[in-house]
């Protein structure tokens, strides 16, 4: 048994190089990944890197002043947060201010511009039938054409298809296709109110809502006058197109086709609402070569509405066989249909790239804001103040670290060499992992996170002290250094694990129950606590095991911090031999 126990102890103490090699490989691999990714510094939050602060004011619609309430404001905040997070913008803050304002802070980043464009977008979606359309400067709009095999081509940006018909191979079931020529609102015209329009008709004939069952009398003349005066090449005019119109009214709208030409539209009343869209997503369609597409799944109610409107429009001639997908009074697609789309889903395809497809799907998926918002102010936030606070925080951290190092040097002497190396390894791992977490999960380093990293210095130093004191206790009992290290480790290990578990649990609870920047503090505290366990197990203990074999430490040099005399060690216990009985008789 003694031999077996000795063999086990020898085996246990012969593996420190393995642990040191493992943590060295991990550091090299993580550092290589950091440089390979091109993110060699942690991503900074808005308080350190600067960014954009947007103030949005809620604007009530006519007769709906009571809609601006706490419930709707909180719902708007939640939707805005999901939109921004869906774009991968890290550390964005969305919060209410007063009864009518929402403050959005977006840090500098690759997607901050898109986030600003989407954050206040109401995302009111409608499907409206196209009554008339033409280029803003005059002339006929591009018209989709069909190939001889029954598949559909379009000259514009997007086309919409019913997934149920995509698998047709005989050409007898053509899918619906479309061009994105402008912005519009969609709804169904009654079948008996939508006569066919000749493609060769004049612009005035096509623009007549009465000819398409839209309006009549003075309202008809007013809409024609708006359509004639609509200049979609001017941004100020486009922004006001369709203002004040209800979903049940015909309206005018603008849109841009894939050639970059602006078009203007007369659109009928809305037939399908955006709330009838159950889910939207951006998908890379490699089967048909359509590239990036946006798929939409309708609710049961929406599927019936969509089937009805597409069935009625399929009986008309161009452009009145088209419906416009309108997002916030802007046409994002105007597909034509040749048959009813009854599958309960649809696909918008065309000249999308990944970013544009995800932007559209993002707004459709997260729903419309319950209120309309006006952009009151946009302020660029500089990092000057945050930089000063960061500098002050780093100075405080450096002072704290220096005091810890001085304490270790004075009290532990040679052992402080092991502690300082362990602190450096922990700092290197923390820096590399924070740099990698920026692009991976959107982690951004803010001032509270820096505070969490500074607090972690004390947690890491506490683990070293626990281990060192256990080793010293064994030496005080009269044991030599090598067995003292191995006997002290199990007890120190339990204490370190319990202490770090409590710290990690506190960080996890703080992360769950708080919001905003405080989560940065909790996340950093939890991360550094986990790294403390890794460093102590894979670096500090193996390194002390190796140092215990060196004469400087093993002999108890007075500068090693392990001098038995300085520690008040007891003399080793020795067994005394009792004299034998014959010897005692002889002496007597």
Q: Explain this structure to me?
A:
By secondary structure, the protein is an alpha+beta fold. The protein contains 18 helices and 17 strands. Residues 1-13 and 144-216 have low confidence and may be disordered.
Keywords summarizing the entry:
588 residues, alpha+beta, 7-stranded antiparallel β-sheet, 4-stranded antiparallel β-sheet, elongated, disordered N terminus
Task: Set out the fold topology.
Layout lengths: L1 H12 L2 H22 L8 H4 L1 E9 L10 H17 L6 E5 L3 E7 L4 H8 L5 E11 L9 E2 L5 E2 L4 E4 L15 E3 L23 H4 L10 H13 L5 H6 L10 E6 L5 E6 L4 E2 L3 E9 L5 E8 L1 H14 L9 E5 L2 E7 L8 E8 L1 H13 L5 E10 L2 H29 L2 H27 L5 H30 L4 H33 L3 H31 L3 H4 L9 H4 L13 H7 L1
Antiparallel strand pairs: 1-3, 1-17, 2-3, 4-10, 4-11, 4-14, 5-6, 7-16, 8-15, 9-10, 12-13, 13-16, 14-15
Helix pairs in contact: 2-12, 2-15, 11-12, 11-13, 12-13, 12-15, 13-14, 13-15, 14-15
Short précis:
This protein has 588 residues and is α+β, with helices and mostly antiparallel strands. The chain is 47% helix and 18% strand.
- Total DSSP E strands: 17
Q: Which percent bin holds the helix content?
A: 40-55%
Biggest sheet details: 7 strands, antiparallel
Q: Which radius of gyration do the C-alpha atoms yield? A: 36 Å
- Percent of residues in beta strands: 15-25%
The dominant shape is elongated
Structural class: alpha+beta
| Unreliable runs | 1-13, 144-216
Number of helices: 18
């Amino acid at each position: 048994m003694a031999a077996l126990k000795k063999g086990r102890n020898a085996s246990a103490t012969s593996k420190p190089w393995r642990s040191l090699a493992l943590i060295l490989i991990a550091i090299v691999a993580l550092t290589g990944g950091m440089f390979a990714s091109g993110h060699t510094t942690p991503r900074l939050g808005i308080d350190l890197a600067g960014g954009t602060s947007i103030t949005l004011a809620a604007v009530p619609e006519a007769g709906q002043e009571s809609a601006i309430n706490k419930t709707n404001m909180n719902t708007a905040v939640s939707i805005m947060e999901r939109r921004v997070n869906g774009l991968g913008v890290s550390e964005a803050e969305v919060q209410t201010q007063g009864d009518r304002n929402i403050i959005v802070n977006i840090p500098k980043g690759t997607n901050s511009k898109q986030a600003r464009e989407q954050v206040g977008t109401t995302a009111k979606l409608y499907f409206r039938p196209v009554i008339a359309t033409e280029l803003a400067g005059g002339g006929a709009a591009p018209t989709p054409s069909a190939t001889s095999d029954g598949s559909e081509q379009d000259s514009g940006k997007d086309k919409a298809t019913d997934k149920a018909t995509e698998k047709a191979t005989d050409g007898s079931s053509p899918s619906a296709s479309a061009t994105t020529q402008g912005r519009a609102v969609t709804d169904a015209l009654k079948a008996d109110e939508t006569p066919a329009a000749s493609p060769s008709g004049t612009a005035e004939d096509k623009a007549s809502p009465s000819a398409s069952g839209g309006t009549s009398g003075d309202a008809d003349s007013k809409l024609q006058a708006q359509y004639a005066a609509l200049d979609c090449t001017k941004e100020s005019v486009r922004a006001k197109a369709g203002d004040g119109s209800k979903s049940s009214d015909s309206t005018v709208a603008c849109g841009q086709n894939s050639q970059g030409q602006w078009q203007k539209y007369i659109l009928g009343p809305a037939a399908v609402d955006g709330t009838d869209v159950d889910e939207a997503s951006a998908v890379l369609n490699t089967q048909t070569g359509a590239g990036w597409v946006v798929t939409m799944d309708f609710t049961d109610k929406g599927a019936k509405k969509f089937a009805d409107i597409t069935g009625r429009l399929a009986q008309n001639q161009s452009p009145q066989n088209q419906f416009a997908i309108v997002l916030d009074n802007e046409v994002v697609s105007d597909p034509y249909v040749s048959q009813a789309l009854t599958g309960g889903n649809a696909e918008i395809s065309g000249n999308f790239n990944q970013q544009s497809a995800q932007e559209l799907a993002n707004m459709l998926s997260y729903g419309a804001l319950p209120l309309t918002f006006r952009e009151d102010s946009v302020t660029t936030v500089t990092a000057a103040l945050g930089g000063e606070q960061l500098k002050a925080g780093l100075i405080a951290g450096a002072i704290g670290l220096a005091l810890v190092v001085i304490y270790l040097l004075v009290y532990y002497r040679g052992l402080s060499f092991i502690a300082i190396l362990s602190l450096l390894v922990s700092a290197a791992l923390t820096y590399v992992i924070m740099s990698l977490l920026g692009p991976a999960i959107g982690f951004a380093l803010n001032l509270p996170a820096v505070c969490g990293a500074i607090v972690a210095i004390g947690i890491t130093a506490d683990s070293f002290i626990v281990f060192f004191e256990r080793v010293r206790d064994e030496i005080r009992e009269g044991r030599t250094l090598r067995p003292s290290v191995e006997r002290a480790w199990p007890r120190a290990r339990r204490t370190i694990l319990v202490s770090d578990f409590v710290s990690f649990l506190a960080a996890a609870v703080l992360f769950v129950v708080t919001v905003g920047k405080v989560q940065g503090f909790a996340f950093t505290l939890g991360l550094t606590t986990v790294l403390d366990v890794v460093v102590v197990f894979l670096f500090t203990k193996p390194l002390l095991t190796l140092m215990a074999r060196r004469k400087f430490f093993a002999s108890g040099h007075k500068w090693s911090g392990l001098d038995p005399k300085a520690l008040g060690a007891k003399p080793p216990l020795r067994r005394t031999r009792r004299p034998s009985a014959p010897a005692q008789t002889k002496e007597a």
